Each structure stands twice: as C-alpha cells, then as structure tokens.
Known about the structure:
By secondary structure, this protein is an all-alpha fold. It has helices at residues 3-26, 28-37, 44-73, 76-94, 102-125, 127-130, 136-158, 171-195, 224-231, 235-252, 256-285, 291-319, 321-341, 345-373, 379-409, 412-417, 419-431, 441-445; strands at residues 202-204, 221-223. The chain has 18 helices and two strands. The longest helix is centred in the C-terminal third of the chain and has 31 residues, at 379-409.
Amino acid sequence: xxxxxxxxxxxxxxxxxxxxxxxxxxxxxxxxxxxxxxxxxxxxxxxxxxxxxxxxxxxxxxxxxxxxxxxxxxxxxxxxxxxxxxxxxxxxxxxxxxxxxxxxxxxxxxxxxxxxxxxxxxxxxxxxxxxxxxxxxxxxxxxxxxxxxxxxxxxxxxxxxxxxxxxxxxxxxxxxxxxxxxxxxxxxxxxxxxxxxxxxxxxxxxxxxxxxxxxxxxxxxxxxxxxxxxxxxxxxxxxxxxxxxxxxxxxxxxxxxxxxxxxxxxxxxxxxxxxxxxxxxxxxxxxxxxxxxxxxxxxxxxxxxxxxxxxxxxxxxxxxxxxxxxxxxxxxxxxxxxxxxxxxxxxxxxxxxxxxxxxxxxxxxxxxxxxxxxxxxxxxxxxxxxxxxxxxxxxxxxxxxxxxxxxxxxxxxxxxxxxxxxxxxxxxxxxxxxxxxxxxxxxxxxxxxxxx
Length: 452
C-alpha cells in the first residue's frame, strides 16, 4: 500500500466524521431536539446542554485510559472502529426519534457524541505515523479542510429536506436528513479501516507500571502483542491503563512547554467549541435567521474553513505552529468583537466567514503543535489528554458559562463577549510556550538539553 493511499484514507475519515459534527452538534439536531422532540417543554434547553456536557465529560474521563491501552496493545484501529460504530448506530437510531422521546433521544445523543469525540483521540494519533514531521502542518490542514468539505457536502445533500424548516410539520424530512448523516459518516469512514494498518509497536519494560515515576527507566523492548496476551484484558487491562495514565502525567510534568500548551488549548478551545455549539441558536434567537438562511450561512462558514485549513497548513510548516496559533487567536478576537458590537444579518455573515477561516486554521495548527510535542511511544495516550481531558473537558465549562451569562444578563451578545476572557487566557499561556515546533525529536525527548 502506498503512502498516498494511507494519507488519503486518513483524510477521508475527516471528510466522514465532520458530517456528524455539523448535522448533530452544530445545526440540525440541536434545533430538532428543541423544536420537535421537546416542543413546548421549557426544560428543552437545559436537557440539551446537559446532554452535550455529560457526553464530553465522559469522554474526558475515559480517553486517557483508552489511549494508554491503545498504545500498549497496538490496536488503535480497533478502538477507533468501536467508537465510530457506536456513533453511527446511535445517529441512525436518532433518525427515528420524535415528540415525547426527550429522554431516549438525550441518551442516544450522549452515546453518539461519545463515539464521535472518543474516536477523534485515536484518529488524530495516526497523524504522527502517516506524515513526516516537516509535513505535519500541511497534512493536518488538509485533514481539517477535508472535514469541512464533508460538512459542506452533507449540507448540500440534506438541504432539500430542510426547505420547510426544522419544525414538527416537517419532522419526517428532518428525520431523513439525520439518517443521511449517519450513512454518510459510516460510508466514508470505511476506507480508513480497510487500508490503514496499526504498527506492531514495542514498549519499554517498566513503563506503565503505575509508580508515577517520570525518571529514566531500564530499557528492554517487549513486543506489545505478546505482552497483551500475557496480561489479558478486563480488570488487569484497566489497572495497567490506569498505571500508564499515572506514568504519562509524570512524563508530561517533565515538559513544561507541553503543559503550558495543553492549558492554553483548554481555554481557547473552550471558546471555539462554545461558538460552534451555540452558533445556530444565536443566529436564530438573536438575529432571527430562517432555516434557509442558516443553511447558506453554514455553507459559507465551511467554505472559508476549508480555505483556512489549507492556507494555514502551509503557513504552519513555514513559521511553526506556535506563531500560527497566536495569529488565529488574534483573528478570533476580531470575530467576537465584531459579532458583539455589530448588528444585522449581513454583518454576521461576514463575521461567520472570518470565524470559519480562524476555526479551521487554529484547530489544524493545534493538532500539529501537539503532534510535534509528542514522543511516538506515547502518541495515543498523549492525544487522549489532548483530545479527551483537555479538549472535551473544556466543552463542559464553555457552554455552562455561556448559558449562565446569557441567563443573568438577558443577552446572548453578553454571553458571546464573555468568551473574550477564554481567548485572552489562552493567548497569554500560548505566548509563554517556548517551543517553536521546529526542534528535533531528540530535543523533545531530552528537554533538559533544549534551550529556552
């Protein structure tokens, strides 16, 4: 199998899973849950927020453990397949949900979102294997561009089904749109499982023993699969993974710049995910967007996100991920200020396009930064912390703060403005990261010899 086929199958998975994000998290299902499933029930908003937060919290808790086990067993693709299957199956079942099924729909969405978000941990970890270090920014950017292209494609497919709105009278067509998104996700995810192979990695004896030590260890290569056969699964596997996580925390503490980056990512990704989660509700409730206008708006956002992902992918490889992230955060400041101070649908269209540009570029550059900071033997486990603990836990805090500010201030614009604090903290922490993203692997593995 050629390297190009490996890269393409990896990129195609991003094309597949972003269809879930735009249909089930950002646009269609939030409005369907509120307008159709819950109807006039005043607890609809609270139940939706709870469902999103709980699914993210659960992923944040289990991702490091699963990442550790995937690194130890060498069966990363198996974990990705299980999570993807859960997401596709739960989304398929949600296409049959309707009025009076709020609890069942909430439970299924939690499963679907856990499958989607949990799978990203294992998917992102493949980037280090399929791309040379000098090309990680470009490949990561292409991945996000393919994702936004997939979102644009699925929006074009389901657009006719939503022409009469996301309302009870158009319920069957909205259900069909949800079903299409499940089929779209499953179909285009298949090439990765057919063409990408896990490496039979080796781990160092003593690693993951659970002592929490971050110091040097006695080296003795042990084939992963034989180790797994010896130790088995179940409780022993859980305890082994828990020991791996404890060890990883100790290792991360040896890398202050990695720690600063993860903390910075927690804050600015918190704000980005909150913008994504509330964009359709903000546009409809505050600005009076119709369903047709929302479809056009999100198509424009996906188009600019594609451009941003590709453009800044090349920029990242040229100037390094740190500088790229700083630039995109400054763009986010402009986006939020313009949205808060401005008014009217036309200005929000332009602001949305700028948000799309910065959304694709900041996420792609962040993934590149994490890839270059991560030693290969801990790649999935570290990405468990990046995508799981820091990425998903931030999605618990952001929507909660947005909702509280909106409720007490009586204004979604005030809630949107509160996100400037999160972007500001993320920017300050990011400026303190001394790692440029261009050091050698040896320098990363021996940070004490690296100049600040």
